[in-house]
Amino acid sequence: MVGRLLADTHSLPQGKLEAVRRECERTGKPFEYAFLLDALSDEQDQGITIDTARCFFKTATRDYIIIDAPGHIEFLKNMISGAARAEAAALIIDAKEGVRENSRRHGYILSMLGVRQVVVCVNKMDLVGHNEAHFRAIEAEYRAFLAGIGAVSPKQFIPVSAIAGENLALRSGKMPWYEGPTLLETLDGFAKAPGKSEAPFRMPVQAVYKFTNAGDDRRIIAGRIEAGRVKVGDRIVFAPSNKSTIVKSIEGFNVAPRNEIDAGWSTGFTLSEEIYVTRGEVMSHADAAPLVSTRLRANVIWLGRKPFIQGRDYKLKLHTVATPVRIHKVLKVIDASEIDGQLGKDHVGRHDVADLILETRTPVAFDLIGDSEATGRFVIVDGYDVAGGGIITAAVSDQQDDLRAEARRRDFNWVKGAVSAGERAEKQGHRAALVMFVGKAGTGKHRYARALEKALFDQERSVYMLDGSNVLLGVDQDLVWVDATQAELVRRFGEVAHLLLDAGLIVVSTTNAIGLGDFGAVQALIPHAPSIVIEVDPAGTSAEACDLRIRGTEPENDVIARIVDLLTTRQILGSVSADLGR
Fold it and tell me: Interhelix angle for 132-148 vs 101-112, to 10°?
């Protein structure tokens, strides 16, 4: 169909059509317009599209880029990669075969990818005698199917015969019962997507560069601006850390100085103060910040050979962040091979489409797919393979929503002293961080925490051990004789930890009042500071997420050395002597 469209709009290179006809005659194959795009020999031999092809044509209304994407189930990854950047789609159904598994699956995928402008072409009408009733039956069945899954509603269904060019660029005389537009007329009627520069500002942080040669002390936050625009002097905020500052300059290699930049550019910024941000944070304006949560509702297409199952960690890659993720809840799984579609499964099989709630180990910044494409679309990695992908359809409340809002209000209005966090880190040789030992009482948490504090102190680190009992005896004294909620005890603990972290300390803590579940609340209150969780689990049966799990029988020096390795890997410690804790 695409090949015939190119031929009828005179968009082929001179001599291309004749060259393909001669090649077909030479090899004894019947000529097909698909050969104008299917470059791979396997594609021509088997009569299927395997890889995506890009081609160009124009009408009197606009210029087009066509991405010819494969429909066969074995090449779904290719189809998704081809369709992912499309603003509109023409979905093809074989008139003789009718609505089949791939037609249903492609309907899911287009909806998942956020493609809202769709035309459906019922092709090969010549094989069914250009029968109107046959066409109307296919249209009714497919419209009902798409409506049933809440997918996009096509703008038009068009009966076509691609091999004869009927209802593509020219109206067919063999189907007078069809009074709608041709395919080209329909495409010309689609709206151009609004410019990304008009959307709220989004720049996922790709890297941070520090230049020290020749007295150059710039610290440059680099990334690609995915949406919106920003200018020098704008106040910006990073999510999820809540760190806020002002754009000092816009940087680039071998380019003229500029005071404003917009979507589509890869660039760098210097900031008015030295704040520590890392890859995966999202830079935005404070009045239009992205969503932040550990839970998000998503539509997922699964392509991995092993099923997507509950209770197991995978890796979520969303813009520039990569973080462990699990299935929190399976809402529904849709099997495109079945007409009714919805299956009550607790896992997602290969080629299934699912409506899920995902849960990340740490909070992530994101947008809904309708608000921002780059921060609303993700892939899931199983081992070393990209096994699935999807779009974010809703933010889901987790237990830390209120605490996250409290931290945002506090951090945005925090009265800063004369010494910045960067200056403290430079002088002390490390960043502020929280190291939390969790686990049941009597497992040795306190012993390890004291040993870690002493080892770091002996290395002249600014470290303090914050025991929950001390907070209970002091800050929580007014709650001792009342029926205080656990949530308030945890909240106050988190605010005390925030003050110590703001002073630049490495805070080592242990408390039975805060278990693994409650530690999420503490993290929500200190989004600006890195944290490391060590679980002491004598039985070795815990499946809770943590950074390090020990039995409680390991020598102190070995545990300290492993924690120091974590602190160094996370860039919390600067140069640490090799014998620390050994």
Answer: 50
- Strand 88-94 relative to strand 117-123: parallel, antiparallel, unpaired? parallel
Distance CA 408, CA 419 (A): 21
β-pairing verdict for 353-366 and 308-309 = unpaired
Parallel, antiparallel, or unpaired for β 347-348 and 548-550? unpaired
The pLDDT tens digits for 80-105 are 665 667 788 898 999 999 998 778 87
Fold of 291-398: Elongation Factor Tu (Ef-tu); domain 3 (2.40.30)
For the chain, domain boundaries: 2-189, 197-288, 291-398, 402-569
pTM: 0.70
Assess contact for 229 and 260: CB atoms under 8 A: yes
Query: Under CATH, which number does the domain 402-569 receive?
Result: 3.40.50.300
Amino acid in the structure at residue 521: A
pLDDT in tens, 323-363: 999 999 998 887 655 545 556 677 888 878 888 999 998 88
Considering only residues 68 and 429, tell me which one the structure prediction assigns the higher pLDDT. 429
Measured at the CA of 87, the angle between CA 81 and CA 88, to 5 degrees, comes to 95
Cβ(244)–Cβ(408) below 8 Å: no
